[in-house]
Design a protein that fits this description.
single chain, alpha/beta, Alpha-Beta Plaits, 8-stranded mixed beta sheet, 6-stranded mixed beta sheet, 14 strands, 53% helix, elongated, TPR_rpt, A/G_cyclase, Tetratricopeptide repeat protein, transmembrane helix, TPR-like_helical_dom_sf
């Protein structure tokens, strides 16, 4: 029998639910199969494909190229959507086959069949090889789904869905094909046990990215930047969703330990949760050259984490794989995976990097789960007291479960510092409380970036400039992508009037966290203290195009308008905000500056009464008195502010703050400046 070996694109099609339809309505089933074959024959002929065989309600065919096969599949699905709709699944793979006069054989045929079995009605699934051929063809859109282990196929394979208009893209939860079943069937209390498994993948990704720093002859590449997109949760419930977000967080944290790798922060990455934007569009917006995406599936005591690393410039998949196992081997797996991959890629991690990648935050899954929940509340931002209190309780609980859990102590310290940032509690009180867990964390692990970041922030709020800089630079040395450390350094240099160093550090902040309105607002405040009011306004205008209703950005633009003496414009902005539109302290100041004393006095009374019930930074009340021209009361409330620790983000800038320019010759004001400068 004559036979030949060929490289072809192999397509399987199948009518979903055909057997059941045949039992229910044989006449309708026959009619549908007939239409299926008519459409198939017509489309295959147009695309110069070759039918190998019909089998029941399915077909097997081959094409000379991936592009021809996918074009044919899209045409067929568009026809199948016309009445009567035919629910067809299509799978395509590129591979080597042996063709006889009546049949084709080869592993590639088996793979194509397995891919088709994963599809849902109306979808077209393709292998990584097909996707590679489509990469530079603008008429095709694809979406990465997952990495699968197929029955009787000795390797894992990434699978993609064609995402052109009119073609169905399945959710991972819908996929149920001919794969190796390695995940348990019951979904129970993963919350306390599953959290640790993500470390199986972390060290691997870190090791892989190290290799991108080197060419084959050892030369350094220019710059490595990566964004970790929020991983998808395959389990459709709230608990697994929060766990999956935790996986994303920790991959970002882990990758941030690698020198020469810039990692986009969590805040900016989370903007793309559930996005329909393409990889290349996201990479352009975040200015990165690599994107990591993936998914998490949790069942009982077993977890599967898969990841796909993409070179954004070429849209080429550099690597895709998955890991799943029971919790028993989790810590051994973490070490083994990183070392095995390093060995396979013939690279050697530095002793320091290997030590950091091998370091485990805790051996207690329950403590880790509680810690992740605390982080969830802390990361919500906005300074809501109830959320900060919840985070505080959870971090404390994590340290009770595991008294040697360094990162839980750091989380507790960071929570206390957030009370200060948002003006929710006395800085003096919070700094005393923050120092205890921060020093405890240092005693547990003297090589943790977060610990030094917290200590640096504490020193910053205490006006200990040299110590703060020392700690913050140490935090960056350990964790080169530590955004908050760069931010605090930028604040210090802004208060010194050093525009060059302020912008140098803040450009790093924006590079690592380009979509964080909090940090963009901080930049506006920096420019305010440097007297660069128009620069700040221009920056806020640019950012308000992305976040048109952001209260912080609106407030910061208005505040810089007051620096230019444009109080009426500032008032219009302050009153347009969705929060504190009639009671904000800077609104009170602005009313005072234009002579609207009654309105200013109303806001002052509101803040004074509020201060009897909850903490209000005295600095804010002092500012309203300045608007009213009441120097004595302004000085009194500034002195009160220093007594409670000083509102760090404002108080340290008194020397440059234009609002307090009339006080610069006052002896009481000079005495305050001597304490903080």
């Amino acid at each position: 029998m004559a036979q030949s070996r060929q490289l072809v694109a192999i397509m399987f099609t199948d009518i979903e639910g055909y057997t059941a339809l045949m039992q229910k309505d044989e006449k309708q089933a026959v009619h549908i199969r007939q239409k299926h074959r008519e459409v198939f024959n017509m489309s295959t002929k147009e695309c110069e494909g070759e039918l190998i065989q019909y089998y029941g309600d399915g077909t097997l065919s081959v094409f000379k190229s991936s592009i021809a096969a996918v074009n044919c599949a899209i045409k067929m699905q568009q026809y199948f959507q016309q009445s009567p709709v035919i629910p067809v699944r299509i799978g395509i793979h590129l591979g080597d086959i042996i063709k006889t006069e009546t049949d084709i054989i080869g592993d590639a045929v088996n793979v194509a069949s397995r891919i088709e079995s994963l599809a849902v009605a109306g979808s077209i699934l393709v292998s990584g090889k097909i996707n590679d051929d489509l990469r530079n063809q603008s008429e095709f859109e694809t979406k990465y789904l997952d990495v699968f282990e197929f029955k009787n196929v000795n390797q894992t394979m990434p699978v993609f869905a064609i995402a052109n208009e009119g073609v169905v893209v399945p959710n991972l939860s819908e996929i149920n094909g001919k794969t190796e079943e390695r995940i348990g069937k019951s979904f129970k209390s993963f919350k306390r046990k599953a959290a640790v498994l993500l470390f199986v993948l972390l060290a691997f990704i870190a090791t892989l990215l190290i290799t991108r720093q080197q060419t084959s002859n050892g030369h350094q590449l220019n710059e490595l930047t990566i964004a970790v997109l929020p991983f998808n949760s395959v389990n459709l419930d709230n608990n697994s969703e929060s766990f999956t977000d935790g996986v994303t967080d920790d991959i970002i944290t882990h990758l941030s330990k690698i020198q020469h790798l810039q990692v986009i922060s969590r805040a900016s990455a989370m903007h793309y949760k559930g996005t329909e934007k393409s990889i290349q569009q996201i990479a352009k917006e975040l200015d990165v050259n690599y994107i990591l995406e993936g998914s998490v599936r949790v069942n009982d005591n077993q977890v599967r984490i898969n990841a796909n690393l993409v070179d954004a410039a070429s849209n080429k998949n550099l690597w895709a794989n998955n890991y799943d196992n029971t919790m028993v081997q989790i810590f051994k797996l973490q070490t083994d995976v990183s070392k095995d991959i390093a060995n396979a890629l013939k690279i050697r991690l530095s002793e320091t990097e290997e030590s950091r990648l091998n370091s485990l935050p805790t051996n207690n899954p329950e403590a880790y789960s509680v810690f992740k929940e605390g982080q969830m509340y802390l990361h919500r931002g906005g300074g809501k007291v109830e959320e900060l209190k919840k985070a505080e309780q959870l971090f404390k609980r994590a340290t009770e479960i595991d008294p040697n859990f360094c990162r839980a102590y750091v989380g507790l310290a960071e929570t206390y510092l957030e009370y200060i940032f948002w003006g929710r509690e006395s800085p003096k009180k919070m700094l005393e409380q923050a120092s205890i867990p921060a020093l405890k964390a240092l005693a547990i692990n003297s090589n943790d970036g977060g610990t030094f970041g917290a200590l640096g922030a504490i020193s910053y709020y205490k006006y200990q400039r040299e110590t703060a800089i020392l700690y913050l630079k140490k935090a960056i040395e350990i964790n080169p992508s530590y955004v908050n450390a760069y931010d605090k350094l930028a604040w210090i240099y802004a208060f010194e009037g050093n525009l060059k160093l302020m912008e140098e550090n803040f450009n790093k902040v924006i590079k690592l966290d380009p979509l964080s309105s909090k940090y963009i607002g901080d930049m506006g405040q920096h420019y305010y203290y440097l007297g660069e009011y128009q620069k700040a306004i221009d920056k806020m205008d640019e950012s308000l195009k992305m976040f048109p209703n952001n209260n912080m950005l609106i407030w910061m633009k208005a505040t810089n308008l007051t620096g230019l003496g444009k109080y009426h414009e500032a008032i219009e902005l302050y009153t347009s905000r969705s929060v504190a539109s009639n009671t904000n302290w800077m609104l009170g100041y602005s009313y005072g500056m234009i002579g609207e004393r009654e309105k200013a006095q109303d806001i002052l009374e509101y803040q004074l009464n509020k201060n009897k019930m909850v903490y209000v930074p005295p600095f804010m009340i002092a500012t309203i008195y300045m608007g009213l021209g009441d120097v004595e009361n302004a000085l009194t409330w500034l002195e009160k502010d220093y007594e409670v620790g000083g509102q760090g983000l404002f108080f340290w800038g008194l020397k440059q703050d234009i609002r307090f320019k009339p006080l610069r010759e006052e002896p009481r004001f000079q005495a305050l400046l001597s304490k903080v400068n």
